[in-house]
């Protein structure tokens, strides 16, 4: 159990909800869902703590959307348990749904209304009081970077601006858990970066985020832990380096140097697994390049090599994903 965390939902006394939660905001245990003979989700379990971004990655048809729908309380599960802020959660749990901000891949906006009018409409659905709604709408517009365009109709927005407003709707009621289903799909690089910065800021404030994406670089940049799902099952879970370690791939430090030759001092280092010598360069294979680099450089220098350039190559999530599923993320 982690330390208790106070989560304040709302500032209007009529709708203010303060809860004490452990830092385990979401807990899924042995989730299962079938559609006829198809087992869409099979024994899926994971947790997300306050301030953590958990990436759920998988190829199309892997079970991501079904899993998210069960967590959000939209789809009934056939087996397993979901708890939000330490309380059981399901399709009939109004308490749990008020603590989840669900941002679907499909836009849920009214194009003829402005951003502020859209947020005002959804604030009513969330039963926010007038004073709280006014304050919260301005806060959300600032978070998603739309304050300057708040009066413009949504139909005049770019795809990226619509995505950002879609996220804003999910943030209005200050949920401790935010579910983002491919929030950057089809947006320009500038909007994608703005969305990623917003998500990073939210986790810094203690929000737990469940994040799905088809962009591996987003998962590497944002996610503290990642679950790789395929054919309805979690194939692997952990931080980036833990996942890379599962498939046994090593980091490579490439030293460009004059007069390359075998260097026993390098091969003797405990961090070094293998040293490849080629004309003009050495390829040093290590388990953790960032921690090994200073000792590798020191050993090369002491051996009399004149190092002209250094490159570090780390295995990425794409290689792990291909190893575990046999598919690219966007398949």
How is this structure best described in words?
This is ABC-2 type transport system ATP-binding protein. The protein has 331 residues and is α/β, with parallel strands linked by helices. The chain contains eleven helices and 16 strands. Helix 3 crosses helix 4 and helix 5 packs parallel to helix 6. The longest helix is centred in the middle third of the chain and has 16 residues. The chain is elongated. The protein starts with a strand and ends in a 6-residue tail after the last helix. The N terminus is likely disordered.
Quick recap:
The chain has 331 residues and is an alpha/beta fold. It has helices at residues 64-72, 94-97, 115-125, 130-143, 159-171, 189-204, 216-222, 240-246, 264-267, 289-302, 317-325, and strands at residues 5-9, 17-21, 24-35, 38-49, 53-57, 79-84, 87-88, 100-103, 177-181, 208-212, 225-230, 233-238, 251-258, 272-278, 281-286, 306-313. It has 2 domains: 5-244, P-loop containing nucleotide triphosphate hydrolases (Rossmann fold); 250-314, ACT domain (Alpha-Beta Plaits).
Pick out its properties:
six-stranded mixed beta sheet, Rossmann fold, 331 residues, 16 strands, four-stranded antiparallel beta sheet, ATP hydrolysis activity, ATP binding, disordered N terminus, alpha/beta, Alpha-Beta Plaits
Question: How are the secondary structure elements laid out?
Answer:
Elements: E1 5-9, E2 17-21, E3 24-35, E4 38-49, E5 53-57, H1 64-72, E6 79-84, E7 87-88, H2 94-97, E8 100-103, H3 115-125, H4 130-143, H5 159-171, E9 177-181, H6 189-204, E10 208-212, H7 216-222, E11 225-230, E12 233-238, H8 240-246, E13 251-258, H9 264-267, E14 272-278, E15 281-286, H10 289-302, E16 306-313, H11 317-325
Parallel strand pairs: 5-10, 5-11, 8-9, 9-10
Antiparallel strand pairs: 1-2, 3-4, 3-6, 6-7, 11-12, 13-15, 13-16, 14-15
């Amino acid at each position: 159990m982690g330390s208790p965390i106070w989560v304040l939902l709302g500032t209007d006394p009529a709708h203010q909800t303060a809860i004490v939660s452990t830092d385990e905001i979401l807990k899924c245990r042995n989730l299962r869902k079938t559609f006829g003979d198809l087992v869409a989700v099979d024994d899926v379990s994971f947790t997300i703590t306050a301030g953590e971004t958990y990436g759920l990655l998988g190829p199309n048809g892997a079970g991501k959307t079904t899993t998210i729908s069960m967590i959000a309380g939209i789809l009934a599960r056939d087996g397993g348990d979901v708890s939000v802020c330490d309380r059981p959660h399901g399709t009939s749990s109004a308490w749990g749904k008020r603590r989840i901000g669900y941002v679907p891949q499909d836009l849920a906006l009214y194009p003829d209304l402005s951003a502020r009018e859209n947020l005002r409409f959804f604030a009513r659905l969330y039963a926010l009081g007038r004073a709280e709604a006014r304050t919260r709408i301005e806060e959300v517009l600032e978070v998603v970077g739309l304050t300057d365009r708040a009066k413009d109709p949504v139909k005049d927005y770019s795809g990226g601006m619509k995505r950002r407003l879609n996220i804003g709707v999910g943030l209005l009621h200050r949920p401790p858990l935010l579910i983002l289903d491919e929030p950057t799909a089809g947006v320009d690089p500038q909007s994608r970066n703005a969305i990623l910065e917003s998500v990073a800021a939210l986790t810094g404030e203690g929000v737990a985020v469940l994040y799905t994406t088809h962009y591996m670089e987003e998962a590497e940049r944002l996610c503290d832990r990642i679950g790789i799902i395929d054919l309805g099952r979690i194939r692997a879970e952990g931080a980036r380096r833990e996942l890379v370690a599962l498939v046994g791939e090593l980091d490579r430090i490439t030293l460009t140097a004059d007069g390359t030759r075998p260097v026993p001092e390098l091969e003797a280092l405990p961090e070094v697994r293998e040293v490849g010598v080629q004309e003009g360069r050495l390829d040093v294979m290590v388990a953790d390049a960032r921690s090994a680099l200073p000792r590798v450089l020191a050993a090369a220098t002491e051996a009399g090599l004149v190092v002209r350039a250094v490159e570090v190559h780390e295995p990425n999530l794409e290689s792990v994903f291909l190893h575990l599923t046999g598919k690219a993320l966007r398949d």
